[in-house]
Specification:
By secondary structure, the chain is α/β, with parallel strands linked by helices. Helix content is 28%, strand content 17%. The chain contains four helices and five strands, in the order αββαβαβαβ. The longest helix is centred in the first third of the chain and has 13 residues, at 9-21.
């Protein structure tokens, strides 16, 4: 008899997203993303960090101060990294799993890439201008989004 306590697709892909986020060197917020095909194949992953060739020792990680002296001027978000990391052609009709609800800038990239569903874990910026703009964009473009439903299962492993 086969085992019945295996994890669901949502648990698997959100777990992959969170694992990808653990690659981020951001001291405050680690976000991971995973793009999945309609037949549950992982197409791409990303996490928040500086663009290739930009040393994370030479750019600021600060959250406060003049814009050019904070991380916000330089960091590429996980969703955009996942989109840019994909080398297989079109992402039309795919699903994005992400540990933090996308900002308005990432929402535009998600829409332009053809991603049709966003599954997010945390919406800690709910109600902010960026969050409201992202949701308005998704609604207008027909991108479905929903909060990941925690199963309460703890998944752990030794590496």
């Amino acid at each position: 008899m086969k085992r019945t306590d295996y994890i669901s697709w949502d648990e698997y892909f959100m777990g992959v997203s969170k694992l990808a986020g653990m690659r981020s060197k951001d001291p405050n917020t680690q976000v991971g993303a995973c793009i999945v095909s309609h037949d549950n194949n992982i197409l791409s992953m990303g996490y928040n960090g500086f663009p290739k060739g930009c040393s994370d020792d030479d750019f600021p990680w600060e959250r406060e101060g003049d814009f050019g002296e904070t991380k916000y001027a330089y960091v590429t978000h996980s969703e955009l990294n996942a989109i840019l990391n994909y080398r297989g052609g079109s992402l039309e009709g795919t699903k994005l799993y992400v540990s933090l609800f996308p900002c308005n800038e990432c929402a535009k990239a998600i829409i332009q890439a053809g991603i049709k569903t966003v599954v997010y874990d945390d919406d800690k910026y709910d109600g902010t201008p960026s969050d409201l703009a992202a949701k308005r964009l998704f609604d207008a473009a027909g991108v479905r989004y929903y909060k990941y439903q925690h199963s309460g299962r703890k998944i752990s492993f030794d590496i």
